[in-house]
Specification:
436 residues, seven-stranded mixed sheet, five-stranded mixed sheet, 13 helices, binds glycyl-adenosine-5'-phosphate
C-alpha cells in the first residue's frame, strides 16, 4: 500500500474513531459515498463556515448574505443551461460493467478495472430530479440545486434594490448542493450531497480584470485561515478551450491530496451570461442603474475545506511515553485555534469526587467563554492522546496537589509544554492565549 493511500486510510479512520465524520446510514449497511458529520466534526465544519462568513460578509461593507431555497422553479435550470449542459460523459465497460467518466480516463478505449472495451460515451445529466406534490408528471418536475449560485442571480435585482448597494457588490450564500455524480469517492472529496460557500460579485464590465486579481488574492488569504500551506496548493489557469464559452478567465485552486492534485475551489469570470439569460427567460429587466453587471464568482466547497483542513493539520511525531527512555507515535491535529472543535479540555487526574467536583466547576466556568470538554474516563495518557487527535489546543489537568496550591497544569497541544496556573487566573490566561 502506498504511503499516500495509507495516509487517507488513517484520516478516514481517525475521523470515524473520534466522531468527525461517520459513514451514512451505517446500521442499514451504509449508503455508498454518504457521510454524516459527528459531534466533533460538526463543530469544525461550523467553525469553517463561520470563519468564511465573518471574512466575506461581516467584515465587509460590500457583500450581503442570502439563503435561497434548495428547490427552485424548474425554469431556472432551463435558463441557466443546467438542464441541457450540466452533463458528464458516461461510459460503461462491456465486460465488467463498471462505469466511468470518459474525461477522467487516460486511455479512452479501455476499462480502468479490467482493460475491457468501453461503450461509446453518452451525456449523463447530473441534476437530481424529484416531483412536487402527488402527481408525477412533467408539470410537477423539480430539481435539487446543483449549485447555490443561481439563487443569487435570480434574487439579484430584488437584493440590489432593497440594500441600495452600488457596484461592485456581492451576494454570499452557504448551502447544500446536489449532483448525481458518476464517480463519487475519495471520502468526502466527491459526494452527491455536499455544501458550497459561494459569492456572486457584481462588477462593471470594464473592471473585471482588476476585481478578478483581488479575488485571487483573497482566496489565498482564506487558505491561510484553514492552516493550508502555500506548497500544498496549485493555482491552475484554465486554458481557453477548457473554459466555459462565456468565461474569459477561470482559475482552479487545486490541492495536492494524497489521491492526486485535484480541485479544491474555483474562481471564474462569468461575464453577464447568467443575468442576461435570466432576464431573457423571465422577461424581467435585471439591469441595475442602467447596466447589466458582470460577475466574478469565487466558489468554495465546505466538505473539501474540511478535508484539506484535516489533511494540513495532521501530524505524526515521536513523543516520550510515561516509561523512562521510551517513545511512541503521537498523532496530533495542529488545527488553527479558531477552528478547533474544543478549545480546552478539563481532565481530573482521578474520578474521585474530591477532584471531579472542583474540576467540573472549572469546566463550567471556562465553558462560559470557550467550548470546553470535561473528560474523566481512562488514563490521563489516553485522554491527552484523544485531545491531540481532535486538535484541542489546551488541556487543563487537576491533580491532588491542586487541592493544596489551588493551581492546575495547562498543557499546550503543539509544544506539549506544561505550566502551573492558579485556578483564579485561568480565565485571564486563556483570554490571552485564545483571543489574541
Ligand atoms: N457555481 C460554480 C460551481 O458550482 P463547481 O466547480 O462546479 O462550481 C464549486 O463547484 C465547488 O464545490 C468546487 O470547487 C468544490 O469545492 C465543490 N464541489 C463540487 N462538486 C462537489 C462534489 N461532488 N462533492 C464535494 N464537493 C464538490
Amino acid at each position: 500500500m502506498s504511503e499516500n493511500s495509507q495516509l487517507m486510510d488513517k484520516i478516514v479512520s481517525l475521523c470515524k474513531r473520534r466522531g468527525f465524520v461517520l459513514p451514512g446510514s451505517e446500521i442499514y449497511g451504509g449508503l455508498a459515498n454518504s457521510w454524516d458529520y459527528g459531534p466533533i466534526g460538526i463543530e469544525l465544519r461550523n467553525n469553517i463556515k463561520r470563519t468564511w462568513w465573518k471574512m466575506f460578509v461581516h467584515q465587509r461593507d460590500d457583500i450581503v448574505g442570502l439563503e435561497s431555497a434548495i428547490i427552485m422553479n424548474a425554469k431556472v435550470w432551463h435558463a441557466s443551461g443546467h438542464l441541457k449542459h450540466f452533463t458528464d460523459p458516461l461510459v460503461d465497460c462491456k465486460k465488467c460493467k463498471n462505469r466511468f467518466r470518459e474525461d477522467q480516463l487516460t486511455d479512452k478505449k479501455k476499462c480502468l478495472t479490467c482493460g475491457g472495451a468501453l461503450t461509446p460515451a453518452r451525456q449523463f445529466n447530473m441534476m437530481l430530479k424529484t416531483h412536487l406534490g402527488p402527481v408525477e408528471d412533467e408539470a410537477s418536475e423539480a430539481y435539487l440545486r446543483p449549485e447555490t449560485a443561481q439563487g443569487m442571480f435570480v434574487d439579484f435585482k430584488t437584493i440590489a434594490n432593497l440594500t441600495r448597494k452600488k457596484l461592485p457588490f456581492g451576494i454570499a450564500q452557504i448551502g447544500k448542493a446536489f449532483r448525481n455524480e458518476i464517480t463519487p469517492g475519495n471520502f468526502i472529496f466527491r459526494t452527491r450531497e455536499f455544501e458550497q460557500m459561494e459569492i456572486e460579485y457584481f462588477v462593471e464590465d470594464k473592471n473585471w480584470e482588476e476585481q478578478f486579481e483581488k479575488w485571487l488574492a483573497l482566496m489565498k488569504e482564506w487558505l491561510k485561515l484553514l492552516g493550508v500551506k502555500e506548497k500544498e496548493v496549485y493555482f491552475h489557469e484554465i486554458e481557453e478551450k477548457e473554459r466555459a464559452h462565456y468565461s474569459k478567465r477561470t482559475v482552479d485552486i487545486e490541492y495536492h491530496y494524497p489521491f492526486g492534485t485535484k480541485e479544491l475551489y474555483g474562481l471564474a469570470y462569468r461575464g453577464d451570461y447568467d443575468l442576461q439569460n435570466h432576464a431573457k427567460a423571465s422577461k424581467q429587466d435585471l439591469s441595475y442603474n442602467g447596466v447589466t453587471p458582470h460577475v466574478i464568482e469565487p466558489t468554495w466547497g465546505v466538505d473539501r475545506s474540511f478535508l484539506v483542513t484535516i489533511l494540513s493539520a495532521y501530524t505524526e511525531e515521536q513523543a516520550k511515553t510515561a516509561k523512562e527512555g521510551e517513545t511512541d507515535t503521537r498523532v496530533v491535529l495542529k488545527l488553527p485555534v479558531h477552528l478547533a472543535p474544543f478549545k480546552i479540555a478539563v481532565l481530573p487526574l482521578s474520578k474521585k469526587e474530591e477532584l471531579s467536583i472542583p474540576a467540573k466547576k472549572i469546566a463550567a466556568d471556562l465553558r462560559k467563554y470557550w467550548i470546553t470538554e470535561y473528560d474523566e474516563t481512562q488514563s490521563i495518557g489516553k485522554r491527552y492522546r484523544r485531545q491531540d487527535e481532535i486538535g484541542t489546543p489546551y488541556c487543563v489537568t487537576m491533580d491532588f496537589e491542586s487541592l493544596k496550591d489551588n493551581a492546575v497544569t495547562v498543557r499546550d497541544r503543539d509544544t506539549m509544554k506544561q505550566e502551573r496556573i492558579k485556578i483564579t487566573e485561568l480565565t485571564t490566561f486563556f483570554k490571552k492565549k485564545l483571543e489574541s
